[in-house]
Amino acid sequence: MHAVILAGGKGSRLRPYTTCVPKPLMPIGNRYAILEILLMQLRHQGCHSITLAVGHMAPLIRAFVGDGSRFDLAVRYVEETHPLGTVGPLLPIAQDLPENFLVMNGDVLTDLNFAALLEAHGRAGTPITVATYPRQLHSEFGVLDIHHDQIVGFREKPVFDFEVSMGVYAFTRAALAGYPAGEPLGMDRLICDLLRQGRWPGSFAFRGYWLDIGRPDDYDLANQQFDELQPRLLPQVALHVLKPAAHVAI
Q: What is the pLDDT confidence band of residue 250, given thresholds at 50, 70 and 90?
C-alpha cells in the first residue's frame, strides 16, 4: 500500500494563514499538522511507503517529515520546480510506483478508509477510482425550464444534489501512460481523456466525515470540531505509531 500526497500548492485561498507556513503544516486543534494526521492515518491502515510531492516551502515540509521514520513510514520526495497540477507530479516517478496506489491532496481531513478505497479499486479494474462525497447547492432564484422560447416548468429556489471529488483517488499506473514527464496535467484533463477513450473511471461513495480545509471558514470549522472529531480521525491505536517529533522551528 503506497500513497502519493500532493503537498506542493501555495495555499492561496488560506492566506494570510499560509504566508509563512505551507498549507499541509497548518495546525489542527493546536495538536497536529494536517499532513501529520494523514500520515498517521495511512500508517494505521497498513501503508508503509509514501511519496510527498512538494514545491512551495518544500524545505519546511522536508524538515517536519524527514525520512518518515518517526511515523514508521518510508518517505521519499518529488519536487516541483513549476506547478504541475494534480497528476503532473506523478509522471516523473510513474515507473517507480506500484501497479495500484493512492493519491490524495495534502489538505484533506476525513475518516475515509483509504485501504478500503484501494481494495475496491483493485477489484473494479478501473484506471482510476475517485472518492466522492454528496453536496447540495441551494439556488437563490426561481429556475425556469424553457423550450422554444416558452416556459415549460418552474422550480422555486430548488436544491440540486450532486457528488463531488474528495481529492482522494486510487490509481492504476497504466492510467499515466502516454503523458510526458515535466508537463502540467490536471485531474480534469485526465478524466476527460479517459472518458473519450471509453476507459471509464470508477467512483467510491463515502458518507463519513470529510472537510477540504482550503478556505479560512473551513479551516476554522476544523479547529472548532477537532476535540469531537479526534476519536474518529485518529483512533487511539494510531497514536501509538507516532514516535516523538523532532523540534522544527517555523
A: very low
**pLDDT on residue 10:** 66
Coil, helix or strand for 27? strand
Per CATH, domain 2-131+162-239 is 3.40.50.880? no
Q: What is the pTM of this model?
A: 0.86
Domain ranges of the chain: 2-131+162-239
Do the beta carbons of residue 43 and residue 53 sit within 8 Å?
no
Helix or strand run (H / E) with residue 5: strand 2-7
Those residues whose C-beta lies under 8 Å from the C-beta of residue 160, and which sit 6 or more positions away, are 136, 137, 139
| Residues 38, 104 contacting (CB under 8 angstroms) | yes
Report pLDDT digits (tens) over 68-100. Answer: 999 999 999 998 888 888 899 999 999 999 999
Return the HEC string of 84-137: CCCCHHHHHHHHHCCCEEEEEECCEEECCCHHHHHHHHHHHCCCEEEEEEEEEE
CB 159 within 8 A of CB 137: yes
Q: Supply angle C-alpha 152, 158, 161, rounded to 5.
A: 115
